[in-house]
Specification:
Bound molecules: 1,3-dihydroxyacetonephosphate, iron/sulfur cluster
Oligomer: single chain
Structural class: alpha/beta
Shape: globular
Largest sheet: 4 strands, parallel
Number of strands: 12
GO molecular function: 4 iron, 4 sulfur cluster binding; metal ion binding; quinolinate synthetase A activity
Cofactor: [4Fe-4S] cluster
Helix content: 40-55%
Binding site for iminosuccinate: 25, 42, 113-115, 130, 200-202, 228
Number of helices: 15
Function: Catalyzes the condensation of iminoaspartate with dihydroxyacetone phosphate to form quinolinate.
Pfam family, one: NadA
Length: 317
């Protein structure tokens, strides 16, 4: 199946026919982003899914994102074009591991990044995304211990910004972002002295981006630690005509659309998430024709997880 104009027209017709809205994450293939009704980061898509008037949500993203939509709207049909689209970060902590960690820190507030399974969210007090993690942690009584999971680099970023000592961080990581390392970034910074730098906080290099800024080898006002949605806003406000982007390469498509006059370059052009790329034009067509794969979250788990997701949606942006 090719992403032709006929394919796009058929996708839109099928979606309308069954009263479905198509959501696509910023890391999806360009052709999937272009046919979607809404493109955004995890938090924006959660909000859109929760408020959508349609009966069916077709989630072009990875499984935990579709699960989050189902948790928020159990009465809606949530479809993902390929249920094998997982996430190495969400897989880095299980519900059993979280239960054991909680037992070691009785009374701690559990903050989970939205990249977690429904079973982990059911054991969580507040979920967060990369765009509101700092606000979520800042909203918690400073005297309470916080367990932050699963991403160690986002955790380190939140700890640095909030200055919070009683924040314990799980040692998980996303294989795509962990692979964008400090050496590569330093080299790019050195060879592009006038470029601005957008860094996703899941990157293994987020720490070195700040270090470089502090060292003066890369001026602090040129380094921005941002969620994928935050990168779009920053692109519109960028002062330089070149931006180095440290995140999954799917991001470049929306950035180039948002600011066509800017030269966006990937810090690591091999940083591609194989799970995000499982949502192909063929998979999306099959999804709408055959109503699959449907996402199910058992009612008890969804009920236990809902509060933590609703708190995430209510805090920050
Ligand atoms: P955002 O919340 O910034 O969209 O990131 C989601 C994600 O999966 C990052 O790898
Ligand atoms: Fe998960 Fe990483 Fe892929 Fe994002 S880029 S969906 S965190 S594996």
């Amino acid at each position: 199946v090719e992403a032709t104009p006929e394919w796009a027209a058929e996708i839109k017709r099928l979606a309308r026919e069954r009263n479905a809205t198509i959501l696509a994450h910023n890391y999806q293939l360009p052709e999937i982003q272009d046919v979607a009704d809404h493109v955004g980061d995890s938090l924006a898509l959660s909000r859109i899914a929760a408020a959508a008037p349609e009966d069916t949500i077709v989630f072009c993203g990875v499984h935990f994102m579709a699960e989050t939509a189902k948790i928020l709207s159990p009465e809606k049909t949530v479809l993902i074009p390929d249920e094998r689209a997982g996430c190495s970060l969400a897989d880095s902590i299980s519900a059993a591991e979280l239960s054991a960690w909680k037992a070691e820190h009785p009374g701690a507030v559990v903050v989970s990044y939205v990249n977690t399974t429904a079973a982990v969210k059911a054991l969580t007090d507040i979920c967060c995304t990369s765009s509101n993690a700092v606000d979520v942690v800042a909203s918690i009584d400073p005297d309470r211990e916080v367990l932050f999971l699963p991403d160690q680099f986002l955790g380190a970023h939140v700890k640095r910004v909030t200055g919070r000592e009683n924040l314990h961080i799980w040692a998980g990581e996303c294989h795509v972002h962990a692979g964008i390392n400090g050496d590569e970034l330093a080299e790019q910074a050195r060879t592009h002295p006038d470029a601005e730098l957008f860094v996703h906080p899941e990157c293994g290099c987020a720490t070195s981006a700040l270090y470089l800024a502090g060292e003066g080898s890369f001026p602090a006002d040129r380094v921005h630690i941002l969620s994928t949605g935050g990168m779009i806003d920053a692109a519109k406000a960028a002062k330089s005509n070149q931006v180095l982007v440290a995140t999954e390469v799917g991001m470049l498509h929306q950035l180039r659309k948002a600011a066509p006059g800017i030269d966006f370059q990937a810090v690591n052009d091999r940083a591609s998430c194989k799970y995000m790329k499982m949502i192909t034009p063929a998979a999306l067509l099959r999804c709408l024709v055959e109503n699959r794969d449907e996402v199910h979250v058992d009612l008890e788990t969804a009920a236990a997880a809902r509060g933590s997701v609703e708190r995430m949606i209510a805090i920050g942006n």
